[in-house]
Amino acid sequence: MRPLAILGGTFDPIHIAHLAVAWEAAELLDADVRLMPAAVPPHRPPPIADATTRVAMLRAALRGQDRLGLDTRELARGGPSYTVDTLAELRAEEGDRPIVLLLGADAFAGLPGWHRWHALFEAAHIGVLSRPGVARDWPAELAEQMVARQVADPRQLCGRPAGKIVELDVTPLDISATRIRDLLAAGRDPRYLLPEALFDDPALLAPYREHDFRERLP
Ligand code: ATP
User: Fold this and answer.
1) Quick one: which atom of ligand 1 is closest to the CA of 106?
2) Predicted confidence pLDDT, tens digits, the chain (218 residues)
3) What is the domain extent for residue 135?
4) Closest Cα to atom 29 of ligand 1
5) Are residues 118 and 60 in the same domain?
6) Are 150 and 193 in the same domain?
7) Residues 157 and 204 in one domain
8) Closest ligand 1 atom, CA of 102?
9) I need a surface site. Which of 58, 69, 95, 163 has the fewest CB within 10 A?
10) Domain assignment present for 216
């Protein structure tokens, strides 16, 4: 059965590294990938663009291909969205289909801080996407999980619904939403770091251009 892979994130804004790593993961896993924007991320400050704008950016970015989809269930749910709840919901929908939670190496390193993180492995595999500047130097609790769960070949995830970890070596792209927000706030035009469609509608990037970052300082 072809896996379903999920790339969660704030996508504030979506950038070309999100698209590139999601696409490469789809190929390496022979999976359908859904991008899943988070409503109120429990682990970080609130996004600058509201949920409607972030979804509009995702829709614009994903137009014209059918391998990467969009899943807005966490926005519809409202309140804090815990990945473990979302994965349990997906598991109930997908039967025994392999589900792979895709995490950039930075997000994976923070996993032990997540709500009920051990339970994630009951509902999904984890695919760790390499990311420039993030060493594969996992905290001890994660290293332990790696010893027990890691498989070398992404295709080994196809045979079972959940419980394994695979590292996915994707093309290194040193791009982050933080850097893009900084460029936009400084009046720059980060064309080619963002999907081109985001420049077609000036309303999409307006929140970053208009945002006064001093508001966020304590
Ligand atoms: P920010 O700079 O605001 O923290 P971000 O660029 O990390 O944002 P997110 O929306 O937080 O983007 O990321 C969603 C997921 O995509 C995370 O798992 C993150 O690790 C992964 N990701 C984002 N950028 C890259 C990249 N350049 N290479 C590999 N993975 C990435």
Assistant:
1) 20
2) 899 999 999 999 999 999 999 999 999 999 999 999 998 766 678 899 999 999 999 999 999 999 999 999 999 887 778 999 999 999 999 999 999 999 999 999 999 999 999 999 999 999 999 999 999 889 999 999 999 999 999 999 999 999 999 999 999 999 999 999 999 999 999 999 999 999 999 999 999 997 665 555 44
3) 4-169
4) 131
5) yes
6) no
7) no
8) 18
9) 95
10) no
